[in-house]
Amino acid sequence: MTTVETADRARGRTRVSARALGRVASAVSASALGVDAENVGVDLSDERGELVLTVRSAIRSVSLDRVTADAEVVARTGGSILERASRAQGQIRSRVNDLTGYRVARVVVRLQSADIRQEDRVR
Question: Which residue, among 61, 57, 55, has the nearest Cα to 78 in the 3D structure?
Fold first, then answer.
């Protein structure tokens, strides 16, 4: 896939390179998973004219020691890792579609590690 084209008779034609599309998808995925964009890999493919994203990333998490000490921390930080990854799939699909105008058929999230951080404090 080298370029994505969208046509609108009133506005003309826009070309989005695969590289630019990948960078948008990486930034959106990083935001959804709570990690830095440079640590996210995205593969793009085409499925019957729609975009398929395969995201490889860590996911932000609190330490197991913290979970053991305070069982409520999981709920406060957005749920289990599986719940958050599932929610991120929908967020990525919707946001990439909104930003690029390209229809996203499917998002596959492959979690490779946990980015262990302190729980954010409420101010």
Answer: 61
